[in-house]
């Protein structure tokens, strides 16, 4: 019988084998992908804030949360936080895609990052790009090749529904943030010219920030103010100079409303240099008062 005889089953068999081969060549993640996003009629954005941090939060059902976060003294960052850290691992891609209700917009790649203990953290220009995409009504989409360590791909969509009003509330929260956070002022050193103890304008500005923070954060329990000098002079005179410097700083903090009972004022002369007194630059670094904040 001729192989081209229409009564034979060769053609169907060959077609079946070819179809099976094509199916095997298709990556598993396309065949078994998982997508998370809020239903369009149930998208929520809400703001939580304090003088220390503002958050714009978007719950993603069955997955976790997407969060814009700005800490006092820092720039905004974007966090994708699974309820279970095992959901994401390895590299994650972020692309701004057209929203389901507005097809036709060209996708725009934003970045690719490594997960951090299952979460995704987007900083700097990339975080700003996520904000811009949502303002444009686009859908930032995170994707990874392995979900829960399996061969299933996963996508997480961030919808812009109800975003604009919540973002306005977020901006209002940002206005109330402190200018600095605890890490930025917990350890501070202010410098002095040779043989002087008066506060410069720059030192006053720094102490203003410290006082403002202390008056807001009631977990700060104690402030240590320590005066130091370089080794240029008689030891007894250096000790007196370090005392005047430390006391000047303490007086200024008290004048700004800080409770004097919180402050421990000490002075050490030239006993504790941070660097050798062997150059003018090093001597300047040693002519200092350090301010250290301690929490509960």
Protein architecture, described:
It is a single chain. The protein has 296 residues and is of the alpha+beta class. The chain folds into 2 domains: 28-175, Immunoglobulin-like (Sandwich), CATH 2.60.40; 182-295, 2-Layer Sandwich (60s Ribosomal Protein L30, Chain: A), CATH 3.30.1330.60. It is 31% helix and 28% strand. The chain has 8 helices and 14 strands. It has helices spanning 10-25, 28-31, 124-135, 163-175, 182-185, 201-216, 235-255, 280-286, and strands at 34-36, 46-49, 53-60, 64-71, 77-82, 91-97, 108-114, 120-122, 139-144, 154-157, 187-191, 220-227, 263-267, 288-295. The strands form 3 sheets. Strands 1-10-9-6-7 form a 5-stranded mixed beta sheet. Strand 2 (46-49) and strand 3 form a beta hairpin. It is elongated. 26% of the residues are buried. Residues 1-12 and 14-31 have low confidence and may be disordered.
Briefly, what is this?
By secondary structure, the chain is an alpha+beta fold. It has two domains: 28-175, Immunoglobulin-like (Sandwich), CATH 2.60.40; 182-295, 60s Ribosomal Protein L30, Chain: A (2-Layer Sandwich), CATH 3.30.1330.60.
């Amino acid at each position: 019988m001729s192989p081209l005889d229409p009564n034979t089953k060769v053609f169907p068999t060959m077609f079946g084998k070819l179809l099976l081969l094509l199916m095997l060549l298709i990556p598993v993640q396309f065949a078994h992908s998982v997508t998370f996003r809020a239903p369009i009629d149930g998208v929520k954005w809400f703001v939580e804030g304090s003088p220390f941090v503002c958050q714009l939060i978007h719950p993603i059902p069955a997955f976790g949360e997407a969060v814009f976060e700005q800490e006092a003294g820092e720039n905004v960052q974007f966090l994708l936080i699974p309820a279970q850290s095992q959901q994401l691992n390895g590299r994650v891609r972020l692309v701004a895609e057209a929203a389901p209700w507005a097809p036709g917009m060209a996708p725009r790649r934003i970045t690719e990052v490594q997960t951090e203990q299952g979460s995704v953290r987007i900083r700097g220009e990339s975080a700003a790009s996520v904000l811009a995409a949502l303002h444009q009504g686009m859908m930032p989409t995170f994707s990874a090749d392995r979900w829960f360590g399996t061969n299933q791909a996963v996508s997480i969509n961030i919808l812009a529904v109800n975003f604009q009003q919540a973002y306005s509330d977020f901006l209002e929260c940002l206005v109330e943030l402190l200018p600095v956070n605890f890490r930025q002022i917990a350890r501070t050193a202010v410098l002095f010219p040779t043989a002087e103890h008066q506060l410069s304008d720059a030192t006053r500005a720094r102490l203003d920030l410290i006082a403002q923070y202390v008056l807001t954060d009631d977990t700060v329990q104690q402030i240590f103010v320590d005066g130091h000098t370089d080794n240029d002079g008689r030891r007894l005179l250096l000790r007196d100079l370090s005392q005047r410097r430390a006391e000047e700083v303490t007086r200024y903090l008290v004048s700004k409303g800080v409770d004097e009972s919180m402050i421990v004022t000490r002075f050490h002369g030239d006993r504790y240099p941070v660097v050798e007194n062997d150059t003018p630059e090093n001597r300047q670094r040693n002519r200092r008062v350090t301010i250290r904040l301690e929490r509960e």
